Amino acid sequence: MSVRSFGAAFTVLVLAAGTVAAQPAKLNDAQIAHIAYTAGEIDIKAAQQALQKCRNPEVRQFAQDMVRDHTAVNKQALALVQKLQVTPQDNPTSQALVKQAADKRRELSRLRGAAFCRAYAQNEVAYHQTVNNALETTLIPSASNPELKSLLETGLKIFQGHQQHAEQVVAALK
Fold first, then answer.
1. Phi, then psi, of 126 in degrees rounded to 5
2. Of 39, 49, 50, 107, which one's alpha carbon is 20 to 30 angstroms from that of 68?
3. Which domain holds residue 88?
4. DSSP for the chain?
């Protein structure tokens, strides 16, 4: 699957969230928390794969940043849901994300060397574009708890920086 087709396929995040939101019961905070946490876990796993397979110093530094930042945001999210006594709720959007990410990791696992590094970095651009869009257009507006909304807004700022960093890494690999 190309980066372009992955980006299109990953648009399920936006479409599925919108579909859930269009149903009589819109996304609730427990579902939003699960989607956001799942998206972070997906990027951590992708970065761990990159750290195992890629020797390019720029890509490795980026992957280390992804592990650090997404782990930190996910810890904050877990602390918040515990404080609010909310159990993150699995949902079709989270499930679709997990399946697509597993498919993408399998696809990337077949690549070696510079081809892997390039594909990983390109995927990170597409992934962050889509997640950032979903945060802006669906998840943040749907969050009802002000603390959850604030955490998502903080995450969005961090992840917008990730997208810019990924774009720089891609440019450096050409």
1. -60, -40
2. 107
3. 3-173
4. --HHHHHHHHTHHHHHHHHHHHSSSPPPHHHHHHHHHHHHHHHHHHHHHHHHH---HHHHHHHHHHHHHHHHHHHHHHHHHHHHT------HHHHHHHHHHHHHHHHHHT--HHHHHHHHHHHHHHHHHHHHHHIIIIIHHH--SHHHHHHHHHHHHHHHHHHHHHHHHHHHH-
Token representation of residue 119: 């594909």
**Average pLDDT of the residues in 103-127:** 97
Which residues touch 43 (CB under 8 Å, ≥6 apart)?
66, 70, 124, 127
**Residue 22 binned pLDDT confidence (cut-offs 50, 70, 90):** very low
Mean pLDDT for the chain? 88
Instruction: Give the number of domains in the chain.
Output: 1
